[in-house]
Every structure is written in C-alpha cells, then in structure tokens.
Amino acid sequence: MTSTRPAVAVSSTEIEHAANDHNSGHAEHPDLRMFGLATFLVADGMTFAGFFAAYLTFRAVNPLPEGAIYELELLLPTINTAVLIASSFTFHRATKELMKGAMGACRGWLLTTALMGIAFLAGQMYEYFHLPFGLTDNLFASTFYALTGFHGLHVTLGALMILIVWAQASQPGYFTPEKHFGIEAVELYWHFVDVIWVILFGILYLL
Amino acid sequence: MTIALPPLQSPEAHESLQPTNWLRYFSFSLDHKVIGLQYIVCGFLFYFVGGALAGVIRTELATPISDFVTRETYNQVLTLHGTIMIFLWIVPVVNGGFGNYLIPFYVGARDMAFPRLNAVAFWMIPPAGLLLISSYFIGGAAQSGWTAYPPLSLTTPAMGQIIWIVSVLLLGGSSIFGGINFIATILKFRQPGLKLLQMPMYCWAMLGTSILVVLSTPVLAGTLILLSMDIVAHTGFFNPSQGGNVVVYQHLFWFYSHPAVYIMVLPAFGLVSEILPIHARKPLFGYVTMVYSILAIVVLGLVVWAHHMFTSGTPPWMRLFFTIATAFIAVPTGIKFFNWIATIWQGRIALNSAMLFSCAFILQFVFGGITGVALAQVPFDVHVHDTYFVVAHFHYIVYGGTVFVIFASIYHWYPKFTGRMHNEHLGRLHLVLTVIGFNLCFGPQHWLGLNGMPRRVAEYDPQFTFMNQLSSVGALLMAISTIPFLINVIGSIWWGAEAGDNPWRALTPEWLTSSPPPVENWKGAAPLVHEPYGYGTEPGLVDLKVATGSDLWRNS
Q: Which domain does B347 fall in, by range?
C-alpha cells in the first residue's frame, strides 16, 4: 500500500504562494546547526581519543631511555586547569545573562571567559619555555607537546571565536534570548575543549 | 526549539545566484542533485586515472623483470593507484555521489540539512586529488603504499609523503563533513510522518556508514598528523630508532581503514537493496533484519581492525579476539545476502543492465567474502599475508562489491539523472566484458598468492609468469569494458529515448517526480511513501505484462 499526502498542512495563502514559486514545504524547518556541531565534536573527540590511545600505549609498551624526565612540575598546570574549568562557568554565566536579555552583563562575562582562555594559553607558553625537555628529546616529550599543542590550538580557536561573538554582541539585537546560535555554539565548543583538557591533565600530568 | 527561517527570495534572485544550465555543474551549487552528480562525474574522472595506473602495474607485471617502469616509479604508481581508487573514487561516489542525490528524496526533503557544508565537502575533493597527482611531477609521489606504514613512509622521499598526507587529510575532512550532513539529514530532516523503519534501505546504509565515518576518520587524521610530525619535525612516534612504536601506527591506521571497507561496501549494500526489488517486482525480503544487520556490521566493523596485523607481533589473546569478531561479521553479511536472494526468488526478474550488474555483485562479493572469512583465521593469514592472495581478496571486495554496484546504480538511475534511457545492448556488453575481465584479472591472483608471490614488488620469480600474463589480459579487458560504458552514458544524453518520470514503475520517492527532477525535488508537496517496497501488493503493479522493467525499455 502506498499513500501520499502533503508533508505539512498549508493554509490557502501559502498554497497560492507555492503556486507562484513552488516554495511549499520548506517554509520552516528545525535549526539543525547545534546538532551538526555536536556531531562534529564527536568526530573531534575521536581525534583526541586516538592521541590518548597512542600516548597510553607508548607509556605502557615503550620504556623511556635512561635519565629521561617525565615527572612534570604540577603547580602552574594545576592553576591553568582551575582557570580553564572556571572559564566554563563564566561562559555559562554569560549565557544566563543573555537569556535574561542583559546584553551588557553577557558581554562582560564573555570577555572574562576569553581573557581566562588567553591566560591559560599564556600559562602554557610559560610552561613550554621552562620545561626540561624539547620536542624531539624522547617519546614522552614528543607526545606531551603534540597533545598539549593540539589542545592549545583548540583553545586558541575557541578564544578567537569568543572574541568574535563578543564583538558581534555589541550590535543591538544581534543576539536575542530567542536567537543566539553563535554564542550557544561557542559555548558548547568551549565546554568540549574544557572536558578534553581535564582528561589530558589526568593522563599526562597525574598518571 | 529554535526555528531557522530561510531568507525570502524572489525566484529571479534565486536564479541569478545559482546557474540553471549546464554551468551549474561547474559552480558552487547548493542543490543536492547537482552536488551528487558532481561527485559521481568527478569520481569517474579519478577512476580513469586510477585505472590507467592499474594498467601501468599490470603492464609492468606482464614480465618478471622490471622493464616497463623503474622500481621507484612502480612504488609510486601502486601508491597512487590505491589512494586514488579508495579516497577519490569509491568513497566519494558511493557516499557523496549517490548519497547526495538520493537521501533527500528518501527522507522527503528539499535538500540536505546543510547545503553549504555539502558544497564545501565536494569542492575539497578536486583540489586534494590534483594535489595528490601533482606530487608525481614535483619530486615523485609517495612510495609507501596506501597504508603509509612507518618506517617505510619515514625512509622514502619526504616530499611525496607529505603531499600524500595533506591530500588524505583534506579528503578525510570532506568525508567527515559529508557524514555529519547525512546523519543530520536522515535523523532530523525526515518529513513529518515518515518513521525510521519506513525509510528506504539506502538511508539505513548511509546512516551506518556515516556513523563509521564520524567515529573512525578523525583517528586517521590524528595518526597522519603524528606521522607528518615524524617526517617534518623528526619526532619519534613511529620511528623505532628513536624509541617509537610502529605497531601503534598500524593500530590507529586500521582503526580507520578497516571500517573504511564498510564505508565503501555498506552504501553499495544499500543501493543493491533499492535496485533488486524494483527489477524483480517483489518487496525487499526481511526489511527489519536488513536494518539490524547494518547496525551489527557498524558495531562489529569498529572492533575487528587488528585482523590486518596478525603478523605484527600481536599477542595471542588479541589474535583470538579479532579472529572471532571478524568471523562474526559474516553473520549479518550472510543475512543480507540471503535476504537479497529471497528478494529475487520467484520474482518477475527484468534482466536489464542494472539487474545483471547487481546479480554479478552478489556472486563476486560472496567469493570475496569467503576468502575474507578464510583470511580471518590466523594460521591461514600468516601463510598468505602480504601476498597476492590479499590483493585478490581485496579487489573482489571493493571491485566486485562496490564498483559493480556503482555500475548497476548508474544504469538504474540514469533515466532519473538525465531523463533519457541508456542503451541496453551496450550495457550488457559492458557487463560481459567486465565480468570476464575482472575474474580473469583477479582470479589467478589467488593462486599466485597461495604459491608465495609477494605483493607490491615490481619483479617476481619467473615461475609466476603465465598467471601474471593471464591477469594482465584480464586487466586489458577491464580497460576495454569502459569503452561501451562511456559511449553509452555520454551518447544516451542525446540519442537515448525519452525515459518519462518513472520508467521502472518504482515506488521509492525519487521516481515520483519528473526526470530530471526540478530544483527542490517536487513541484508542490513531497510525497510520503509508507511502503517503499510494496511491489506486487497493488493490482496495477501485479499485472506483470505491463510492468516489467525490460518491457518498458524495449517499448521505448
């Protein structure tokens, strides 16, 4: 049995409209951009999962040469971790202010978040310059720089995107409590980068 | 939920943005049908490049010594052949090509969920392909095969290897964007009232494929980034002389590249499931078991990768696990095959080109599947590893499994693509030449492998000469077989009979519109098809005197 029926009930004015430019049926459709972004972040997470798997296998199977250093200074990275985790909460505050329509407060929290991201990057640069090993010294060193570098790239992009939505939010009416895909998307991405860092901190510094 | 309102445009403004004549096939078009055909035609262009490279390989192997090309050139040619055929021909055509053309029809949508992302995904492919091919002319292409195993890929010239990595990263990105688009379209873009278990089977195949793409392709991307750091920055991830570990590369590589086999054959399974019921005039047998088989293949496909590594020093527990998991994949695959046979069983079969190529697919792929189950057994695998047996098995899977289906699908949907019928005589000539050439080319390679001829080497023991020459003759036949195909698909655009909207009297939604379909797919509302395979249940369709596909093309 095959039956056909129109996808959506359309009013008579819409049918006239459709007769003019066969636009019927695509008047509105759900916004799938957040769904697409979430799917992309699953893919991005798999890239990190591959790196983590490689790193853990190297740790388990490949002994480091005599005298290689893999005990890391923990103070600065711990502060960095706290800053990054806190920045997730400040971003959340920004979105809450946005939902209340308080754009000034929202922009303030966005800028705070971006500055915390930049502070994290500055801390990581400082750590890079003061580490006792270089990129090609041994397998642990290479993996350390590859993992933190790839994550740092994500933080850099995230901070830039926060600054972009911060600038966009200065135009009145650009983001409203109903329509704010840009901020919502960057927030999801920022939380993702945060979660990745927590895993990374755990296996790279603490393990 | 947030609602996106598309910008209101007058039809004139719309047309000025998107060319409507033949130029649209060369434009950044957002129409899923245009993008689908762009994928297919672009894929065929790369197929002919890859086929020419295969011709070089078979010419070289017609004699035991390397007299046609040098050994370095031979290595470059086999690397380019593998990479082009996988990443630029099969994956883009069965996923991007037919997926883009058919999936929006099947879910009752006007376009894909993300049309711009879709166009971006396509337009990443030609530059990546040209980059890959150009590496041959600027300092030599990569020489380490499509697997790029270190330390081989670290010791061969770096330039070609880096270009290869960049190209594969671009193609992987294109593949991921396509996969995200398909998942969103199939899960979230269905028209109201269309239930998941009412979708045509190709939707399920593409959903499973896209899940594999999204989960496994990023791992390859990460691995290749590490490999490129080894080459450029002299880190030692995969370099044993610096304390690195080559087996980790193999694990990560095959975590993508084994699912890649399913990324290539699952869409082909879906396409065959569309073609068989129409030309046998019977409902698809066992719809629900087909769906669960696809999902089972997706899950199992992610946990069998190490069966490519039985000679890489894998521990016994790993060998045991991956042997069992691999053998299990034969179960859902077998269910699909029995379902297809039951579908055509006692049907009114129209033996046209589409149906014949589909039947040839069933035969060839079953043979490839049998050698696959054999290869999953560790003792046998250790014996034939890295021999021509693996080459033969692989080509029965990807050529017998996918390329046969691509040809079947071209013949099946040609009337929809162009509004014209193709020539059946040329189509059958194409089939006969392809089947004979294919089996002559790859059949003897089983024997060669069992007797110990290693793969990827330009020279071989003279005792293998006769079988290799037989194989080369088969390759020549396969090359010749593309001539009737090309004459057919290009000539029929002008000389073919008018196809009408629905020459096969099919029930799936893409046939319920004009041929070729209008922009936005349907004039008026999209039809909602509850039973895409309801053949033989309506009186008008049971009357076989009027409704076999073969009668239709003969009358036209």
A: 34-555
